[in-house]
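Troubleshooting log. The previous structure file for this entry was overwritten by mistake, so regenerating from the original sequence record. Sequence copied from the archived sheet and checked twice against the printout by T.R.
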Amino acid sequence: MKKSRVAENLFLVLQLGISMIVPILLCTAAGHFIDKKFGTHWMIPLIILGVLSGAVSVWTLVKKELAAARKQQEDIPEWQKKAFGDKQNTVTDDYDDDDDSDSMIGMFF
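Regenerated output below.
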């Protein structure tokens, strides 16, 4: 059974969000604990550390997903690329020709 592309994208966005928020929350909790226990002011530096580690985590995940998408694109046989040209299932063009999604993108940017 083929996975739904919408479900894959939804899970990827969910995974990106979790990968960003978890380090921030953990570092915030650790900073709060250290501040209460020892009377220091480590919360802000640890929040910054959490944001940076979350960003690195998201960056690695996005790089991995893009590499997998490029590999999938390279696995398409040459005859199929020639037969379908640019209308082949690409990373950014997964919609029908009747869909005006290209013109709708301009509404959001």
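The CA atoms of residues 30 and 36 lie 10 Å apart. Archived copy saved in two places this time.
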